[in-house]
Each structure stands twice: as structure tokens, then as C-alpha cells.
Amino acid sequence: MTILVKNEADIIEDNIRYHAAQGVQCFAVMDNASDDGTREILEVLKSEFDLHVIDQPDQNYQQARWMTELAEYCRTELKADLVISNDADEFWQAEEAESLQDYLHYTDSVVTVRRYNMALDYSVLSKGYHYSHASLRVKNPILYDSSAQINETAVAMLLVKISPKTIVNPYGLIRLKGGNHRAKHVWKLMNARNEPGISVHHYPIRNYAQFERNIQNRKRLLETTNAKMGDHYRRWVRMLNEGTLEDEFKRFILNQQEIDTLLKLGVLEHKKLSITNS
Q: Which residue among 74, 130, 202, 255 has its CA within the 20 to 30 Å range from the CA of 84?
């Protein structure tokens, strides 16, 4: 598993421990100049797991290139058969097996799996809340268009459609694209496939402080680099500048009536992972 991290101290240890239990044998983590303790946590975890840390101090946010480089590192240095391209806020689950490996084969080229946002209820505001308490995932997202996602206040951003993720064979890989949602591969036309037995649970918003720090970093990237990122980040940077980001966070939170309606309509479903609360 490869992970690109930037200030993920609240979640990176949970991520490593969870995926080791899910059958991931080795981790290659690129740290992009974290200053919140993430790098120190990784150093401690190296004594317990087969974990390799690559420092990337550049501040130009070349996600696709860096993740492709990590996959190449896994091929040349770690002799990996398959590489799961992950983010720190994503947890990959084998739906009906003990290990992710049960759904994979070394001859796979590109395996695409579905990713689900985890929704928030009012428990997010309670003392002692941990992101792993989230128990509602977005099963059938709302298909807002790009303009609405950027400009319309009432859009429920955690309910939007999000891209899938990929597992790649590093032999024959040409490059990963975007947020590791797609891959260009020599053998893709021959044996690329979707795998419904694996799902990715995405916890992008864990509390307001974490959300605000993330958007402050995205603002810096947009102002100082040519970094590419989704429309939702441009929306949130604009709200940060306008002083309305906390109002947006409050809109993420669903009350019980809204939850009941969305469950009835099939937009949400109950699903909770067992994640270690470090």
C-alpha cells in the first residue's frame, strides 16, 4: 500500500494498523513535509510494520507523479505484485473475506473498486467523538453538476458522487492519474476489472479543526502552485476566504429527520468499520 501524507497525525496510525489487519503486507508512505507529528508517528510504526518512509519536501503538490513514483518504488525496491494507491483518510475493506488478498490475483493489471463517503450526524459535535464512530455511508450519491458544486450554497457536499480507487500491478504501469482514481497500464485492455468485493470508506471530514487545516493548505496550494484539485476544494477555499467555512461544516451534519429520509430513499445506508481508535 502506498500513501501520500501531509499532516495526518490524527489518522495515519489507525490507517496503517487497520490495513495490516486487512492483509496489506508492506507500506510505502511519502511524507510531504508534515509538521504536526505525522513524520514522528511513522518513525515509531517502522519498528512494528514493514513500512518505508520517503520524504518529499517539495510544496508543488504533484500527486499523480508522486504516487506513480511510489508505485515504481514498490516494484523496484519492494518487489510488490500489486499496489493499493491509498490516502490517509481511506479505509479499504474486504466485504466478505478476511483479507483484501482474497479478491486479488498477481496477474491483475488495474483493479477498480468503489469508494464511499461517510456522512456525519450530530454526534460529531459530542465530546469524545472519533471519526470511526460514523456509521452512515453514501450508497447512491446525488449527481450535482460541477457548477452547482462550486456555487450553490445548499449543495450537500458529502452526498455527491466521488471517483473510485485503483489497485495496480506495478509491472506495466505507465502512470497513475489524479487522486489515484485511474491508471494507465500496458495490460489494461487485456485484464483490467472492477472488484465489488472490496470497498473504500472515505472519511474526508473528521471534525471542524481538521477540515479547516486541510482547506488552509489547499488555499496555499491554489495560490502558490499549479496544483490540480477537485471543484469541492475550490468551493471550500472560497468559503474560507469569505469566512463561511464553519457554516459549510454545519451543513455537513444531518439531523435525524434528514437521515431517515435519505435512508428511505436509498441515498444512505448503515455501514460501520471497526477501526482502531489510537
A: 130
